[in-house]
Amino acid sequence: MRSTTADGSWTLLTGHGHVLVAIARNPEARVRDIGDDAGLTERTTAAIIADLEAAGYLSRERVGRRTRYQLHLDVPFRHQGQEGHLVGPFLELLAGQPTAAGGRTQDSPDS
């Protein structure tokens, strides 16, 4: 795994958090590009994406030869210390762009 800090020490987010933020920034990115953004190998990134999908944080859809990720913003954090908090506002803050409001998925149509 590549380190994302100058001194090789720890970072505040886990690899799972970094991958989720990278996907929020670009839901059509390739696994390789997501890994580069998150500072992880392609294999590690693919395993993390599988974890996130199994936990309900995202789903994948094939569009031609590419994969498009759909984030599920109304899913709560898994740790008891963040009980009651949804992942959507976290991603909106760290991705640097607005995501869908009201706990809908990123690609949900507006009402």
Automatic annotation (TrEMBL):
Q: SUPFAM superfamilies recorded for this chain?
A: Winged helix' DNA-binding domain
Where is the HTH marR-type domain positioned along the sequence?
16-65
Q: Quote any Pfam family the record assigns.
A: MarR_2
Identify the InterPro entries for this entry: HTH_MarR-typ, WH-like_DNA-bd_sf, WH_DNA-bd_sf
The molecular function terms of the Gene Ontology recorded here are: DNA-binding transcription factor activity
Q: Which top-level group of life is the source organism from? A: Bacteria
**Protein name, please?**
Winged helix-turn-helix transcriptional regulator
Q: Which organism is it from?
A: Actinospica acidithermotolerans
**Record lineage:** Bacteria, Bacillati, Actinomycetota, Actinomycetes, Catenulisporales
